[in-house]
Amino acid sequence: MSFDLVVIGGTGDLAWRKLMPALFQAFRHGKLPEGGRILAASRQEMSDDAYRAWLKERFQEVEGAKRPSDDEFARFAGLLHYLRLDLSQPAGYAELKAWLGSKVGHDTPADVVVMYLATSPDLFTTVCAQLGAAGLNGDRVRVVLEKPLGHDLASAREINRVVRSVFREEQAFRIDHYLGKPAVQNLMALRFGNALFEPLWRRESIANIQITLAESIGVGTRGDFYSRTGALRDMIQNHALQLLTMIAMEPPSRNLADAIRDEKLKVLRSLKPFSIESVGRDVIRGQYRAGNADGKPAVGFLEEDKAPAGSRTETFVALRTEVQNWRWAGVPFYLRTGKRLAARDAQIVVNFRPTPHTIFPGTSAPNKLVIKLQPEDGLALHLLAAKGAGQSEALAPVSLDLDFDKAFAENRVGAYERLLLDVIAGRLNLFVRSDEQEEAWAWVEPILEAWRNDDVGPRPYNAGTWGPAAASALVARDGYAWSEEQ
Ligand code: BG6
Q1: Which of 244, 262, 459, 479 is deepest in the core (most CB within 10 A)?
Q2: How far apart are CA 381 and CA 392, in angstroms?
Q3: Which residue among 177, 239, 357, 382 is the active-site one?
Q4: pLDDT tens digits for 265-294?
Q5: pLDDT band at 484 (very low <50, low <70, confident <90, very high)
């Protein structure tokens, strides 16, 4: 199967930091189908060779082991081409069409054409409309859209309306790179490939579920983008909610995109809606002040480059919600994310209920299952075991640890690599459907609304901590604690 992959915005940050390195890894692993071409399209005038040289230079900044040798880059560069494209001008799209129909590096036009919109999201509607007008929306074309897909429900709907007027839903690949992380595949395998957990995966056995997406980095040079976005839009509306759907969904009838996405949509529709009052009680927002992160002094959000003076943007969110259906009624789901937290740590913790009656007085440590997304990728099941002979009453917590990075080392692929290969192969399972995306926006909308009308603003927390104390109180109110406090 031959393919053409067009990176619109081919000289932007996303292109050289994430997409090109991921494509290179796929190439290096021999996973990129033979006979492919990659076309970077951008505003500057550049020859193919000039683009290759520019990218080679950029690759020096790519993580060590992922950097190509000169020889590897030269082979990868054989796939790379460049086209000048002014995104708002029809002429450029006509040239793009001619290039796609040409035989440069191909015997016949490609079977699959992927249009990756790696531009600012403000341009998505313009680009889609132009692609449609140029007739670049035929059956073999797939369009990939990167977050942020909209700023609120209305803007997300508008983007979807334009995308739908040009492409069929099956042609639209909305990326949420968290779905490409290996731990998410393992979660699907754990839940639906094994009989062991399913009977326990419900309110009768589970006390609460915690999803933590913690970063130790600050907003760095993205102060200006970030101040318009904030943690709720940047991480909760998409990544955290997508993980929640994966945890809470009913078993899909098949391993097919729509069967999976129908179940995820049902979860989003079952989320307990927020009111002004419940936002005040169940959602905590914070903003980091100066402190210490990764062992070094760190400035506060307001001192970051390009962060507007007095910005009330949240860099931390913790919230409590419920999935209102028979399986989950009453089980709290706690979601938490933030920048400049104590560690880079993304994990889902499933806390089971304690034993109904204990014959080992003084020992209590309910079972928990920890699904680790990063920094390492694995599973840990926490159990109680007897410490040793003659101490039958002394139980100690032990954990059964599965380190997937070690167990399947040769097959590990990064999130973008995996998702790009899925787009080329036409597998939509790990991409977000427009109705899911809109439902997720509809759910966060009352939070945005309540914050707009509240003059208290985010609570301060010191860089390098786990966020405002109120986030611990949120969980303590139900008689629980965040995993690192247990
Ligand atoms: C992105 C956010 O979607 O995810 C960033 O815009 C965040 O702010 C990033 O840093 C985190 O991704 P990962 O894969 O490093 O956890």
Answers
A1: 244
A2: 22
A3: 239
A4: 999 999 999 999 999 999 999 999 999 998
A5: confident
